[in-house]
């Protein structure tokens, strides 16, 4: 999907999918760079493999999705995937691991003990996952934003290099906790003190944030549109890794989410979490879809 000449600096052109009923139009800057840079027959083996994978998916008998109606009901209720490919869609999510252990020597216990000292919804949890590692200039901009805004934080940086002195200053001030290695994300997000989830808005991160009822500041490398439109997040910047975000913009987004202005957003995030819990509970939409999927697999002789 090369950049059309109609684009105005990537902002004045919208990509639409008329064959997909109910699908919105996406401003060019919100389309993943993977699609924006793809050229048919360009010889990029990685891009061709991704395209082939999507085409193979369409040959499946059905789609089993780790989502639920409270999160994507607008699209599931309209059944756009069924209309497009004639396939059944089972929305059985969110499928999540059990809560992190909270043994006395467990990292989750250490994190929750640190968070206990802060007021409700005042701390930002920062994680971009293991695959999407922000380059040093991006990490530096976010570190600067955290210091400028005065927002307490827990940051699980994976392999990201943080600016010199940042970790020591934050630890000395008691305003920041940097987690190296495995991070107890589920326990942290469910803690009452965490009011903002700063993430790349990957699928698992988005789902965990919704499950925990935490509002977000999204640095949207892939998709932030759904949570922004649901009014449970703000987009801190657009454009993925293509440009270094402005620290002032990031600081403003952090202040908005954890401050008084974000009270409504945080309340909606809590409401969404309750709806998600109902979906996976007895008689909920996800439970019904899971039961239906199991029954169909039994009829096909795949399950005993």
UniProtKB/TrEMBL annotation:
Annotated keywords: Transferase
Keyword Transferase appears in the UniProt entry: yes
GO MF term set: UDP-glucosyltransferase activity
InterPro entries, per database record: UDP_glucos_trans
Family the entry assigns: Belongs to the UDP-glycosyltransferase family.
Protein name as it appears in the record: UDP-glycosyltransferase 89B2-like
Naturally occurring in which organism (per UniProt): Panicum miliaceum (Proso millet)
């Amino acid at each position: 999907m090369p950049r059309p000449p109609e684009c105005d600096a990537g902002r004045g052109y919208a990509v639409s999918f008329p064959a997909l009923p109910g699908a919105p139009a996406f401003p060019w800057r919100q389309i993943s760079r993977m699609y924006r840079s793809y050229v048919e027959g360009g010889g990029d083996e990685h891009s061709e493999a991704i395209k082939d994978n999507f085409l193979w998916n369409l040959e499946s008998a059905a789609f089993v999705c780790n989502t639920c109606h409270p999160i994507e009901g607008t699209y599931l209720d309209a059944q756009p995937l069924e209309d497009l490919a004639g396939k059944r869609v089972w929305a059985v999510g969110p499928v999540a691991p059990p809560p992190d252990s909270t043994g006395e020597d467990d990292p989750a216990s250490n994190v929750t003990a640190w968070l206990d000292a802060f007021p409700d919804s005042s701390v930002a949890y920062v994680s971009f996952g293991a695959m999407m590692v922000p380059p040093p200039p991006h990490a530096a901009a976010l570190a600067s934003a955290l210091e400028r805004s005065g927002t307490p934080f827990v940051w699980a940086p994976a392999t990201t290099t943080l600016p010199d002195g940042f970790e020591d200053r934050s630890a000395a001030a008691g305003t920041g906790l940097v987690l190296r290695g495995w991070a107890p994300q589920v326990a942290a997000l469910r803690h009452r003190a965490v009011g903002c989830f700063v993430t790349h808005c990957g699928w698992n991160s988005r789902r965990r944030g919704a499950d925990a009822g935490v509002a977000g500041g999204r640095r949207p490398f892939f998709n932030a549109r759904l949570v922004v439109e649901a009014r449970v997040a703000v987009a801190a910047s657009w454009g993925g890794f293509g440009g270094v975000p402005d620290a002032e913009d990031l600081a403003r987004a952090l202040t908005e989410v954890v401050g008084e202005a974000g009270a409504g957003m945080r309340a909606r995030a809590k409401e969404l979490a309750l709806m998600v819990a109902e979906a996976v509970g007895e008689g909920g939409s996800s439970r019904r879809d899971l039961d239906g999927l199991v029954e169909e697999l039994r009829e096909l002789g795949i399950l005993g």
